[in-house]
Amino acid sequence: MGRNLQIQLNENEAYTQAFHRSNELLFQRMTNPLLFLDIIYRLTPMYSELKKSLKIIHGLMSDIVRERQNYLATNGHATTTGKIGKTFLDTLLTPTNTGKVFSFQDIREEVNTFVLAGVDTTTSAMCYVLYALAKYPQEQQKVFEEMQNIQQSSKLPANVDFNELQKYKYLDLFIKECLRFYTVVPLTGRQTTSSTRIGERVYPAGVTVWINLYGLAHDPHLFEDPDEFRSLRFAEEKSLIAFSYLPFSGGPHICIGRKYALMIMKIMTIKILEQFQLVLADPQENLILMAEMVLKSKNGINLIFKEREKSSIINY
Ligand code: HEM
C-alpha cells in the first residue's frame, strides 16, 4: 500500500490487538451454530467487542486511504515507470481509462480484504516454514545445499528476482509441503446459491458448507503417510487428486495473492538461511496447533537463529 505501518512497534498496538481479537471472535462465530442468527449474536458481549475491534481497524484503514488521497491530490497520480509499478492503493485511487472512480467505501473494503487476507496468512506460513527448517534439520540442509549449488553454477544478480527463484526446485517442494503440513487456513466455507449435491447429500440453497482444509491435507486417502513431513512427496510421479491440495483454496475464489505469497516466502527463506541456521529452542517441545482463521500455535514458535560461520555465508 506504500505506507509503512510499523505494526510491530507499540504505536499500533491497539490495531494489532483489534485485528487478532476480531479474528478470534469471527472464528468463534463461524464454528458455533448457536451464534449463527444475527438476532441472537447481537445480544452477546462478543458482538459489542467485535464492533469495537472493527471500528479500530476501519479507523486505521480510513486514515491510510485518506492520507494517500490527499497526497495524490497535491502531488498528482504516479505513473508506472520502469520496473517499479504503482502500489495497490494508488491503483485503486487512480481513475480508470473510462474515468470510473471507486468510492471511498469501496476502496477501504478492498484495502481491508487485502490486509486481512494477506498479512496474517503470510506471517503464519512463514513462521511454520522457519519452524519446519528447525524441526527437520535434514530438510534445512537440503534447502541450504541447493542454495549453495545455485550460487556456484550461475552468476547471481544482486537481488533474487522471480526468474532466479525458478531455480530453487527443492525450496519450492519444501514450501509446498510446509503449506500442506501446517495448513495455514484450516477451514473455509461456501454458501450454496441453488440446490447442490455433494456426494450422497443434497443441500438446499442458502446453506453454509464448511470445508475442512486441514483435514483434507491430512487425509491418508489423499496423501500417503500424511503425518510425515516429506517435501519429496510433491516430486513423485503419482499425480495429486484434483482439489486435494488446497492451501490457497480453489475455484473462482482461489487466493489472489498466492504467487506473491510464495515469492516473498522463498525470498525470505533464502535471505534468512544465508545468514542463520535455525534450531528449535527446545527440541522436546511439540507444537500445539489451534484452528482459528489462520492456524495458530498455542505457545508460539520458539526458535534460535544461530549465526552461520563467515566461511559458509553465501554472498549474493
Ligand atoms: C501463505 C499465504 C497465504 C495463504 C495460505 C492464503 C490462503 C488463502 C485462502 C485459503 C483463500 C480462500 C479463502 C476461501 O476460499 O474461502 C484466500 C483468499 C484470498 N487471499 Fe490469500 N493467502 C495467502 C496470502 C495472500 C496474500 C499475500 C494476499 C494479498 C496480497 C492474499 C489475498 C487474498 C484475497 C484478496 C483473497 C480473497 C479472494 C476471493 O475471495 O476472491 N492472500 N487466501
From TrEMBL:
Alphabetical list of Gene3D superfamilies matching this protein: Cytochrome P450
Domain of life, per lineage: Eukaryota
Any one Pfam family match given in the protein's UniProt record, by short name: p450
Keyword Iron: yes
GO molecular function, one term: oxidoreductase activity, acting on paired donors, with incorporation or reduction of molecular oxygen
Family: Belongs to the cytochrome P450 family.
Binding sites annotated in the UniProt record for heme: C255
Protein name: Cytochrome P450
Alphabetical keyword list: Heme, Iron, Metal-binding, Monooxygenase, Oxidoreductase
Cofactor (UniProt): heme
